Amino acid sequence: MRILLENTQAYTLLKRESEKNRLSHAYLLLWEDKKYLKSALKTFAKLFFDVPEGERIGRLIDAETFADCLFFPETEKKLSVADAEKIKEESDLAPVEGEKKLFVLSDFAEANAQTQNKLLKLLEEPP
Fold first, then answer.
1. CA angle, 101 as apex, 100 and 102 as ends, to 5°?
2. Which residues of 31-50 are buried (b: 16+ CB within 10 A; e: fewer)?
3. 3-class DSSP state for residue 12?
4. pTM given for the model
5. pLDDT tens across 13-34, in order?
């Protein structure tokens, strides 16, 4: 799976931006295969944090327990207004372990309009 991801335009772009220390405040990844969406997002999260294979932070990202990488929504749920509010609250807090924080949102298109609007406002005006 990782080899396939490394050959995507999205991976190449994120890797280049990370190497030049020019990461943006938001990225949108369109991924058609829902079965592997979470795995792909975790791979991109590791790239975002520049985590070498097998390191502690990578294992925490895989377990969705790294304090500076928050995954939304919970498994088998849709993004909710409560999720959007938690993301807003968390975005106002400094990272715990490093210099940056990542919010990984899957299935954004399936969220209701109210949730999408709250999150879009946050993207337009990040803290």
1. 130
2. beeeeeebebbbbbbbbbbe
3. helix
4. 0.88
5. 999 998 998 988 888 887 788 8
